[in-house]
Amino acid sequence: xxxxxxxxxxxxxxxxxxxxxxxxxxxxxxxxxxxxxxxxxxxxxxxxxxxxxxxxxxxxxxxxxxxxxxxxxxxxxxxxxxxxxxxxxxxxxxxxxxxxxxxxxxxxxxxxxxxxxxxxxxxxxxxxxxxxxxxxxxxxxxxxxxxxxxxxxxxxxxxxxxxxxxxxxxxxxxxxxxxxxxxxxxxxxxxxxxxxxxxxxxxxxxxxxxxxxxxxxxxxxxxxxxxxxxxxxxxxxxxxxxxxxxxxxxxxxxxxxxxxxxxxxxxxxxxxxxxxxxxxxxxxxxxxxxxxxxxxxxxxxxxxxxxxxxxxxxxxxxxxxxxxxxxxxxxxxxxxxxxxxxxxxxxx
Length: 348
Ligand SMILES: C[S@@+](CC[C@H](N)C(=O)[O-])C[C@H]1O[C@@H](n2cnc3c(N)ncnc32)[C@H](O)[C@@H]1O
Fold this sequence. Notes:
Blueprint: H1 3-12, H2 35-38, H3 41-51, H4 55-59, E1 74-79, H5 87-94, E2 100-104, H6 108-117, E3 122-124, E4 135-141, E5 150-155, E6 158-167, E7 170-177, H7 180-189, E8 198-201, H8 203-215, E9 219-225, E10 227-228, H9 230-233, H10 238-241, E11 242-245, E12 262-265, E13 267-268, H11 269-278, E14 284-287, H12 288-294, H13 297-313, H14 317-334, E15 343-347
Parallel strand pairs: 1-2, 1-4, 2-3, 4-9, 10-13
Antiparallel strand pairs: 5-6, 5-8, 6-7, 9-15, 11-12, 14-15
């Protein structure tokens, strides 16, 4: 089968998928830690960005708080909300200025946790459960990288797909003729690359972006992931293109243990830009450091530093430790060699 089908089955099979059927995966006790798990300020700062698109803030009229500019309701949506660590502070910061808040999650364990923590949010399994035609402000952190991607390799005769086959009872990677849509995507996003180049083909990301624009009225997006332009992604081997996370370790054998590990790929920013442009949107891509600094991260760090000094001077050890830990967590979110290097694709 093509690799994207294999990835979809491993992550989202209703009975055995790593996300759909397993326990809650994100968090310090789960399999990986993401920015929202580091500090609630991540959700708060995204909330500051989101608030700009609330009709209440945009138009300054109470009467239009629940209605968009064309008369449609404007809703705040988090897709792939995981443990809810982003949603809780996002709602605290911005929930009050939107008509409704939705959390969309394919994992049933995650949906239960989110619903318990956020009684005011509508927790759903798919975008199809949100009314069509509403204006949407949509946030997704580390979700596009978990959408099934195909793998392709440039051969002497054009693009071949890398799929998963059975050999002597074991699953193995195998080459197969590329599907039309894969060839089209590769030609458009990668163009001419040297023979042997392996690439990920993010058809599911493109389809998801187009469904967002089709379903909703006015769309504002904040999509955060580790990603890179096509040129930077081309030319790596399958081992570095496809990554796994299980129990905070990488390098799990995803071919021999389907469904037992997270499978993730770097997001191709040119593919995202192309899909948004096709849907009629314009994207601004910056890194997480710049995005959070735009929302006021440096001022928060400065305030925590001042609190740390003042509480230290007053001998208030517990408060000093609290301020210090808040500062360190904020610094981790904007660290240019870590989370700060993630990319943020914005449709504003
Ligand atoms: C790596 S986790 C990130 C969780 C959370 N956003 C965070 O930052 O901690 C990816 C999550 O996205 C969910 N997911 C993937 N594709 C999705 C989709 N199309 N719709 C809703 N949820 C999705 C998975 O079930 C998983 O919980």
